[in-house]
Amino acid sequence: MASDSGARGTARPAPTHPHPATTGQPTVLSGATVVLPTETVKNGQVAIHGTRITTTAPENAQVIDVTGHYLLPGFVDLHNHGGGGASFTSGSAEDILKGIHTHRLHGTTTLVASTVTGDMDFLTQRAGLLSELAEQGEIAGVHFEGPFISPCRKGAHAENLLRDPHPADVRKLIDAARGRAKMVTLATELPGGLDSVRLLAEHGVIAAIGHTDATYEQTVQAIDAGATVATHLFNAMPPLGHRSPGPITALLEDDRITVELINDGTHLHPAALQLAFHHAGADRVAFITDAMDAAGFGDGRYWLGPLEVEVADGVARLVEDGTIAGSTLTLDRAFKRAVTVDGLSVEDAVTALSANPARLLGMADTIGSLEPGRFADLVLLDSAYDLKGVMRRGEWVVGPQLH
Fold first, then answer.
1. Active site: which residues (predicted)?
2. Which residues are annotated as a binding site for Zn(2+)?
């Protein structure tokens, strides 16, 4: 949905600008608890020169004391449909940039733009627009969630626009994205599903199992064919049963699968999240937002593709039947909830929010950690895990807010 066509939300993000004291000059952030891939360093420091993290900083670098804070790598969101009142499926380029900026204000320094189900001509057109933004470095790529999903588990997708995942149609979308397609969600039990998984794997695109009515055995077949991600595990798939274990069991037990989780307190009970972490382990979990237009914007009426959505108290549901319709989550909230409600360690939460999605995107050499040589993408949190600063590519998006 374009930002001006029906949204009534009022909680607009305040505009922010790069911090003038640090923009464009070497910087050292000193005194924080720094979360690295192999250790957490108390009273540590991170040196930044230009767009990158460096081993050391020049003598003229400005030192900013961030004692009492956490320094984390910038968050990476694999699955995001919009924010700030803007839809990645239907908004203009200007709208999409507003949505991207909204999530940057909440610590997401790398984002994959997700579409919802539409007709093929419309989706190929959107792929072209989103690929341009990927080429400009604004997004990391495109995720097609639909139309190749099960009508039995359609969630907030228009049933009349769904279709089987025939390889020719899947190829049409990835070609339209001009090498910027990162992921396609499929109900792999549908006709053409396994061949489409193989096609995606051959082209270096993530095949994600989701919005599926598959059995356990069918899910195992899809994993063997090359699927590597579970789209928002537990949601839009058959529940786990003791005689019919279904896709959840197959996805949790296989080391080749990374499971997406929406940690907003609405999509998952905390015990379900703990179940996923226990069986998959922190190295196979990726927190996502599955955010729609209302993220960072407010309650009101919105459109998700052709379907009208009512957002009340931060929960998005279809007007027609009350089905949950994405989320209004931002990743800073997902992080705080993981640590303060779900009892995860800071390190495991960072792995799920930064390192794992960076690895899946094939970008672990440039994002997802605070190691030298990576982009200077980082999040500054206070001792209560509230966001106090965001840097992307060496420029402050938020803060730092130290008082």
1. 290 (proton donor/acceptor)
2. 145, 211, 232
Q: Which CATH architecture has domain 27-72+368-398?
A: Roll (2.30)
Q: Report whether pLDDT(250) > 50.
A: yes
Q: Decide if pLDDT at 9 tops 60.
A: no
DSSP at 354: I
Q: Which segments of 55-105 are extended strands (E)?
A: 62-65, 70-73, 75-80, 82-83, 86-87
- pLDDT attached to residue 24: 63
> Is the distance from CB of 294 to CB of 300 less than 8 angstroms?
yes
DSSP state of 322: -
Using one digit for the tens of pLDDT, what is the confidence trace for 331-344?
999 999 999 999 99
Q: What pLDDT does 112 receive?
A: 98
Known binding-site residues for substrate equal: 156, 235-236, 243, 267, 324-326
Domain extents in the chain: 27-72+368-398, 74-360
Domain 74-360 top-level CATH class: alpha beta
Known active-site residue 195: no
Are the folds of 27-72+368-398 and 74-360 the same?
Answer: no
* From 290, 332, 342, 377, the catalytic residue: 290
